[in-house]
Design a protein that fits this description.
single chain, alpha+beta, Diaminopimelate Epimerase, Chain A, domain 1, Aminopeptidase, 2 domains
Length: about 425
């Protein structure tokens, strides 16, 4: 499966952005996300951002940390996805999108910066832990624990974070850790982000939380605040009405670094069906969705399916068929079945059928991988080098899958609106 990806950075906070309006990218594949974000084994990023459909707004933003966890709102990431939405021609006017913390408005400015609106923040929700060190927890879409220090560049951030995580481990869901200092009327900040589990060069929601922190502790009276991070400057504007901080905007630079194609080879394995697969077998065999592409017209009883399972345990020399369960290697999740049937050892031939169980798993390359593994295995283990299948004419996805590994349509063979396909070993694609 190939995806077009967009590598963005916003003040050194970098992300992999993917247009996922067709829901082809699997958000729950933690190992895949880890690998993509790995800076040595993958592309490298602080997280992955998916641009998805929204029923009422221009799009939905889904942010996933590099560790695979879906996080709170990401201010810098929202500015990147705003820029991408313009490239994808999603909207020409004011940009409105949804995220995990609610709806937002964004705009591209003439100075090549991007601004995004943040949700109102109520100061009565702030948790002040220590008046002396002004330690405060503020949720600006994501929870931020903020410490006022003498000089952010002199602290050992990793040692400090280790101590803080121990001292404040009662905060449910975890938190981002921010250190801010005031030097010559300038505000400097460093952030250790949860999910990334490392210091990031910039953090948009952290800067918003820090701006509220400065106003809350009367360390800054201005409504426009500039905060310096290792990745550059970020700007906030904040209005205050009693206990409510509102009309909050985050502004900063964004850069499209790279556009490329991400080819994902889904890792699968095949295992023989066994008794534990009974319920799954029943679901597949008696599904109207799947049977529309087969010759099956009636549903199987439990006893018939149990007999099939018991027969599957017998030697293939007796049954002349094998059913394999297709499993995803990362989590052992069942993806479907693939069958060898009408096995003829004398002629070295067998029939093949395959089914992928869920629409979200189709068109991901699982079918092609399965067929290649099946053919290669059975050529070696059973000496079979000729395969055939019947595919309903309207099942274009299945036709494409079989043709992609070398099956070709038989001449003058069509039955009940099915096309016959043959395969010879020398046609196997690599």
């Amino acid at each position: 499966m190939e995806y077009t990806f967009y590598k963005y950075q916003a003040n050194g906070n970098d992300f992999i952005l993917i247009d996922n309006r067709k829901k082809v990218f699997k958000k729950n594949n933690t190992k895949l996300i880890n690998k993509i974000c790995d800076r040595k084994l993958g592309i490298g990023a602080d997280g992955i951002i998916l641009l998805e459909e929204d029923a009422f707004l221009d799009f939905k933003m889904t942010y996933i940390n590099s560790d695979g966890s879906e996080s709170g709102f990401c201010g810098n990431g929202s500015r990147c996805i705003t820029h991408l939405s313009k490239i994808l021609n999603i909207t020409d006017g004011e940009i409105k999108f949804s995220a995990i913390d609610g709806n937002h408005i964004a705009k591209l400015n003439n100075d090549n910066t991007v601004s995004v609106s943040m949700n109102d923040i109520n100061s009565t929700d702030f948790i002040k832990y220590d008046n002396k060190f002004k330690t405060t927890l503020i949720n600006s879409g994501s929870p931020h624990l903020i410490f006022l220090v003498n000089d952010v560049y002199e602290i050992d951030i990793y040692n400090e974070v280790k101590i803080i995580k121990h001292d404040y481990n009662s905060i449910n869901g975890g938190f981002n850790i921010n250190f801010i200092s005031i030097n010559n009327k300038s505000f400097n900040m460093r952030t250790f982000e949860r999910g990334v589990e490392d210091e990031t060069l910039s953090c948009g929601s952290g800067v918003v939380a820090a701006s509220c922190f400065l106003k809350f502790h009367k360390l800054c009276e201005k409504n426009s605040i500039k905060i310096n991070m290792k990745g550059g400057e970020l700007f906030t504007t904040i209005e205050q009405n009693n206990n409510i901080y509102n009309d909050i905007w985050l502004k900063g630079n964004v850069e499209l670094v790279y556009v490329g194609n991400l080819k994902i080879c889904w890792m699968i394995y095949l295992r023989k069906i066994n008794i534990s697969d009974f319920n799954y077998l029943k679901y597949i065999e008696n599904s109207d969705e799947f049977n529309q592409f087969s010759l099956i017209k009636t549903k199987y009883s439990d006893s018939e399916l149990k007999n099939f399972l018991f027969e599957s345990l017998l030697p293939v020399s007796k049954t002349k068929q094998i059913r394999f369960v297709i499993c995803e290697k990362s989590n052992d999740k069942r993806l479907g079945f693939v069958d060898l049937f009408n096995i003829n050892f004398r002629k070295s031939t067998a029939g093949v059928s395959i089914i992928i169980d869920d629409s979200s798993n189709r068109c991901r390359g699982y079918g092609k991988l399965t067929l290649k593994k099946l053919i290669e295995y059975n050529t070696k283990a059973l000496g079979i080098n000729k395969f055939h299948c019947l595919i309903r004419k309207k099942n274009k996805a299945s036709i494409k899958c079989f043709e992609s590994v070398g099956f070709f349509k038989s001449l003058n063979r069509r039955k009940n609106n099915f096309f016959s396909y043959n395969f010879l070993m020398n046609n196997l694609c690599t």
